[in-house]
Amino acid sequence: MSVTSAPGPAIPPSDEELVLKVIPMPADSNANGDIFGGWVMAQVDLAGSVIPARYAGGRIATVAVNEFIFKQPVRVGDILSFYSKLTRIGKTSITVKVEVYAERFQSQGQFVKVTEANLTYVAIDDQGKPRPVPHRPTIS
Fold it and tell me: Is pTM beyond 0.70 here?
């Protein structure tokens, strides 16, 4: 069995939009001081909804978590930056990629990619039924 070292510093993506920054607190951690994965997932869902909300022109709901990868642990005091990019617009749905980078408390200014995910949101009407996305730009 081979052992690989932790990846070195990462560079946040320049083709994605910074949509959220947050610092996890002790109440968000387990007994080892690592942040609960469910807490990170909730933050990714919030960050992922920012861009679809612009295009939907109304209510949206998370319809699928297509992929979710935890790459490194998140620790209390990390500064987390959530970057998002539109990847697909369908008739009623919008899919985005979210990448999460941590600036460790002791080494601010240096980023480590901790999580990446792909999520799909659906535009919904007042009854919670899918409706067409009114604004469908071309994705570059």
Answer: yes
Q: Please name each of the domains of the chain with its CATH number.
A: 17-123 (3.10.129.10)
Burial class (CB in 10 A: 0-12, 13-18, 19+), 3: exposed
Closest CA to 56 of 15, 90, 16: 90
Q: What is the predicted pLDDT for the residue at 63?
A: 98
Tell me what pLDDT residue 12 has: 81
CA torsion 105-22-71-55 (nearest 10°) is -150
Give bridge partners of residue 97 from the DSSP assignment: 85, 118
Q: What angle do CA 61, 64, 48 make, to 5 degrees?
A: 60
Distances (CA, A) of 102 to 50, 62, 67, 89, 92: 20, 24, 19, 29, 33
pLDDT surpassing 60 at residue 52 = yes
